[in-house]
Amino acid sequence: MKHHQIMIVPYNSDYAEQTVEMWRNSKEQAIGQKEMHSFDSHIYFINHILPVQFQIDLAIMEESVVGIIAYNETEISQLYIHKDYQGIGLGQMLLNKVKAQSGGRLTLNTFEVNKNAQLFYEKNGFKIIGKGNENEENLPDIQYEWEVE
């Protein structure tokens, strides 16, 4: 696939529907279960709930949303890449930006069923610090932490 210009931009609600559609498809593929929340409540979440605690950035390619990351100085809340654009470095690009602006330490949770995510985070220096299932999906998850060298 030839490389198109990828832009990382702050989230803007003009992109809400595209972003939520991409997020839901990516997540369903990653965990093998349907999203439990309605499309509308997911839109509400990204526009009103998520931004209270997290900065949200989008990866945009040819006017299309191909990735999302939600983060603050200490935590990554969400990271999803469009299922047709995985494995080309988008997640890496988003993660690098977040690492650079972090306080030198980041934690995140990922689903135990999502092996691709675990390989990605471990390759990027994240270490497992806990396991549990504090999530609505009621799936086992893994807590990771990264610290700057």
Hey, roughly how much beta strand do the residues contain? 25-35%
CATH topology: Aminopeptidase
The second-level CATH architecture is 3-Layer(aba) Sandwich
How many separate helices? 4
- What is the CATH homology-level superfamily? Gcn5-related N-acetyltransferase (GNAT)
Structure write-up:
With 149 residues, this protein is of the alpha+beta class. The chain has a single domain, classed as Aminopeptidase (3-Layer(aba) Sandwich), CATH 3.40.630. 35% of the residues lie in helices and 31% in strands. It contains four helices and seven strands. A four-stranded antiparallel beta sheet has the order 1-2-3-4, with helices on both faces. The radius of gyration is 15 Å and the shape is globular. It starts with 5 loop residues before the first strand and ends with a strand.
Identify the notable features of this structure and list them briefly:
149 residues; Aminopeptidase; three-stranded antiparallel beta sheet; 7 strands; four-stranded antiparallel beta sheet; transferase
Structure summarized in a few sentences:
The strands form two sheets. This protein has a four-stranded antiparallel β-sheet with strand order 1-2-3-4, with helices on both faces. A three-stranded antiparallel β-sheet has the order 5-7-6, covered by helices on one side. It is of the alpha+beta class and 149 residues long.
SSE topology:
Layout: E1 6-10, H1 16-31, H2 39-53, E2 55-61, E3 64-71, E4 76-81, H3 90-101, E5 105-111, H4 115-123, E6 127-132, E7 141-147
Antiparallel strand pairs: 1-2, 2-3, 3-4, 5-7, 6-7
